[in-house]
Write a structure and sequence with these properties.
The structure holds two protein chains of two kinds. By secondary structure, chain A is an alpha+beta fold. Chain A has one domain (4-144): Alpha-Beta Plaits. Chain A is built from five helices and eight strands. In chain A, the strands form four sheets. Chain A has a two-stranded antiparallel ribbon with strand order 1-8. In chain A, strands 2-3 form a two-stranded antiparallel ribbon. Chain A has a two-stranded antiparallel ribbon with strand order 4-5. In chain A, strand 6 and strand 7 form a beta hairpin. Chain A starts with 7 loop residues before the first strand and ends with a helix. In chain B, the strands form four sheets. A six-stranded mixed β-sheet of chain B has the order 2-1-6-3-4-5. A six-stranded mixed β-sheet of chain B has the order 8-7-12-9-10-11. A three-stranded antiparallel β-sheet of chain B has the order 13-14-15. Chain B starts with 6 loop residues before the first strand and ends with a helix. Classes of the chains: A alpha+beta, B alpha+beta.
């Protein structure tokens, strides 16, 4: 039985991510042996100087992309949650692209089939390469549970900090 | 070829014709890319004496060999080269951000644009597909609006746009080309050249791979640079940023204030890097592939300019702050924001305004001529008002100032030239040359006019490596050696903020080049490339009648207005005598004649024998002039 606590995915901290796209280059370097953001499994959005975020597959429970595929080309790996693409079955219709709310499904420019995060792990760090290369330490490889804990801790810390400051002001 | 695209694109805007030619390995190795390749292409694709705004003057977009790779800071650059409408000599500037790598991925090491479009247009480079498209709906649009609207029109968020604003369209001689909202091809008026061609923007989408020769070696190399970028070499840029210079230079009596009237600023604290970061900086972001980050994004939290947002670096903070006597950062941030919107050089604009303020204070221009603006030093509202006028070329003064200080002084006449602080027509950057005299010499010989980034000559002065209060023998060689390094930095197009991370200097850079391109390169060969590029640029200036000794000088104010501030620098200015000593020393170290012309032997030694005729012609003219002078 695989628990959600076991499945890890890459997430970007909006406070830290600066949209430098080092993750895109690292991804294409490691997975495609070339430099080309169009072949990256993680993409950064820079909507303005203060609005930046890198996004990739979050290995959803009950993933919409898998459900959307009319050719059963997408399968979610039981243990890891990684979405695997059957390269023979996929015909690049892109239905999964519109199904994904994060825009994490990409069309491979050469192969003309979809591809997404494969959690490529680094031998040293046991984390995906984009996480290893991120110069801002904005990317983390987490489970849904550790991510929830992180934000819970932050919320509680903020609450108490605000209360302390309010006390001081009085 | 690895790392290089191996292709040069030619576009004629008059006829709409496009063609490509291959980039030879010899050309690549000799001129690297960026400004080196660009200046060679400028030389080969232009006729002597062509006016900067003539359709025949080519404007050349160049990538570097590392553009499009993961090279930290190097992966994201591009350069633009043309004849400068400000100096009449070599115009060049580089910008980072996100534009450069797409141009490389589209398949081009350089794009040579000539001619003039019949109506306002933009160039759309979509890999192999090249199209000149209508831009009339973008007339007078800001740089950022142009970026957004072109991406909307073409329907792809990831398209990169390098555009001019209203100032460029109106042929301002210090207009910039800007990408990614605030990344500027800032200096030497390249935006004006774009405007003269009716070219509003270059939009590019590149989808091809960029491959390096030795992927494993390259990966290890960039990992090393990433690690070094976390260390002391880049600390300044990641913490206070370049505005740290405000208090440093102020303490050295080197913070040019009120158009080089003073060398210290009483309001320095209020415009310091410390103050900026504490009160205004919201986030520090970075360019594509960068392992550091330096873009201090400042937001005004309250007051008349509430919400105004801009990136702010030392040079522009200084030019619109201390140099105009303005001690309000909220106004400086707003001034920077609108300067970017109009698309102007953030250094030149401040110097131009400070020049006008100086004239106003001295009664050379009147309130009538300023359209009622009280153009006193320190008047922040006046600073903003006059920038709007210059950006739009509005009113008598706005129109004249858009010509830059050198031409504006001529147009105004009388004593105005005494207050015009430029070298070869390019406005001085943020160092008081009266108290930083290696810089005075270095700036005077820079091939693009007054510039701190052609040879970094301010550095030995500021770091206390030399007696900065005088010019003496030995400075020439210092400037010569550094100029080679700066030429290579701008040809590889690595960011100058990263220069401290190449611990082994030439060895590191040559290795970087070979790992990426597979072309063998020794540190000695690369140094020679730097030397070749310097001589090439000099030859272009000579060919255009702007490259001899008489043009290597410092402004009147630097020579004739001693520093009045109390302290060790009181009374200093740059004497003509010491400048001449410096020039002799510099020319000797380069192997140039006393007129500042490269000798034929020297040109052959750096592989520019094919252009020796330019030097020979200039020497003949110089001899004839001397013979006539003797009669």
């Amino acid at each position: 039985m695989v628990r959600p606590q076991d499945r890890k995915f890459v997430t970007a901290d909006p406070d830290k991510c600066i949209g430098c796209v080092v993750c895109e280059y690292a991804c294409s370097m490691v997975n495609e042996k070339t430099f080309n953001p169009n072949k990256s499994r993680i993409r950064a959005m820079r909507m303005g100087p203060l609005v930046n975020l890198a996004i990739t597959c979050r290995h959803c429970e009950d993933p919409a992309c898998v459900a959307a595929c009319p050719r059963d080309a997408l399968k979610q790996e039981e243990n890891t949650g990684i979405i695997r693409v059957d390269e023979n079955a996929c015909n690049g219709c892109g239905w999964c692209i519109s199904a994904c709310q994060f825009g994490a499904m990409n069309m491979h420019p050469d192969k003309k089939i979809v591809f997404t995060c494969n959690s490529c792990t680094d031998n040293e760090t046991k984390e995906p390469q984009c996480v290893k290369w991120c110069p801002e330490e904005a990317l983390t490889y987490v489970t849904a549970e550790t991510l929830a804990q992180k934000y819970r801790q932050k919320a509680v810390r903020n609450l108490f900090q605000t209360a302390e400051e309010a006390k001081k002001e009085k | 070829m690895f790392a290089y695209a191996g292709k040069i694109l030619h576009v004629n805007l008059t006829t709409g014709e496009t063609k490509t030619e291959p980039l030879s390995e010899e050309m690549a190795k000799s001129y690297i890319g960026g400004i080196g390749l660009g200046i060679r292409l400028l030389m080969d694709n232009s006729k002597p004496g062509t006016d900067a705004f003539d359709p025949d003057n080519p404007i050349i977009y160049c990538t570097g060999p590392l553009s499009g790779t993961m090279g930290p800071t190097a992966g994201n650059g591009y350069a633009v080269v043309s004849k400068s409408p400000a100096t009449g000599g070599v115009g060049e500037a580089k910008a980072h951000g996100f534009f450069g790598p797409d141009l490389k991925r589209a398949g081009y090491d350089a794009v040579v644009i000539t001619g003039k479009a019949p109506k306002l247009s933009y160039l759309w480079i979509d890999d192999d597909k090249v199209e000149i498209r209508n831009a009339e709906y973008l007339k007078n649009a800001t740089v950022n609006d142009t970026d957004i609207k072109i991406r909307d029109e073409l329907g792809d968020f990831y398209i990169r746009v390098s555009a001019i604003g209203e100032a460029g369209e109106k042929l301002c001689r210090f207009a910039a080309i800007i990408n990614d909202e605030f990344r500027a091809i800032g200096r030497t008026g390249m935006g004006g050249v774009m405007g003269s061609k009716n070219l509003k923007a270059v939009a590019v989408r590149g989808t091809h791979d960029v491959n390096v020769a030795n992927l494993e070696g390259f990966k290890e190399y960039i990992k090393m640079i990433h690690e070094r970028m976390k260390g002391p070499a880049t600390k300044k840029y990641k913490t206070l940023g370049t505005p740290e210079n405000v208090l440093v230079l102020n303490s050295l009596s080197a913070l040019a204030t009120r158009n080089w009237t003073n060398a210290t600023f009483e309001g320095a604290q209020k415009v310091s890097g410390e103050y900026l970061n504490e009160h205004y900086v919201k986030k520090i972001v970075g360019c594509a592939t960068c392992g550091m980050r330096c873009d201090h994004i400042a937001v005004v939290p309250e007051g008349p300019y509430k919400g105004s947002t801009s990136r702010l670096e030392f040079e522009c903070l200084w030019s619109m702050g201390p140099l105009c006597g303005v001690d309000r950062l909220d106004a400086v941030i707003e001034a920077m924001r609108i300067t970017n919107e109009y698309g102007m050089d953030g250094i030149s604009i401040g110097v131009v305004v400070a020049f006008a303020m100086d004239l106003y204070e001295h009664g050379i221009i009147t309130k009538e001529q300023t359209d009622g603006i009280d153009l006193k030093f320190g008047n922040a509202e006046a600073l903003i008002a006059i920038i709007h006028k210059i950006g739009k070329r509005e009113g008598w003064l706005g129109n004249i100032l858009a010509e830059g200080t050198a031409r504006a002084a001529e147009l105004i006449g009388g004593d105005a030239y005494k207050y015009a602080c430029h070298i070869k027509g390019l406005e001085l950057p943020g160092y008081d040359l009266r108290t930083l005299k290696t810089a005075a010499l270095g700036f005077s010989v820079s091939f693009r006019g007054a510039c701190h980034l052609r040879n970094g000559a301010y550095s030995p002065d500021v770091k206390g490596k030399v007696n900065r209060f005088k010019i003496e023998k030995g400075r020439g060689k210092m400037i010569t050696d550094e100029s080679h390094m700066y030429n290579i930095i701008d040809s590889l197009i690595v960011c100058k903020f990263s220069r401290g991370t190449y611990y082994d200097g030439w060895k590191d850079l040559a290795n970087y080049y070979t790992l990426a391109t597979g072309i063998p390169m020794t540190p000695e060969e690369m140094t020679k490339d730097g030397d070749r590029i310097e001589n090439l640029a000099r030859l272009f200036n000579i060919r255009e009648g702007k490259g001899t000794r008489a043009f290597d000088t410092v402004p009147y104010k630097i020579k004739n207005f001693p520093v009045p501030d109390e302290g060790p620098a009181k009374g200093l200015c740059v004497s003509d005598e010491e400048l001449q000593i410096g020039l002799d020393d510099y020319y000797a170290s380069r192997g140039w004649t006393a007129d500042g012309i490269p000798t034929v032997d020297r040109l052959q030694a750096v592989g520019l024998g094919d252009l020796a005729y330019i030097a020979e012609g200039a020497m003949k003219v110089a001899q004839e002039a001397k013979a006539q002078g003797g009669n």
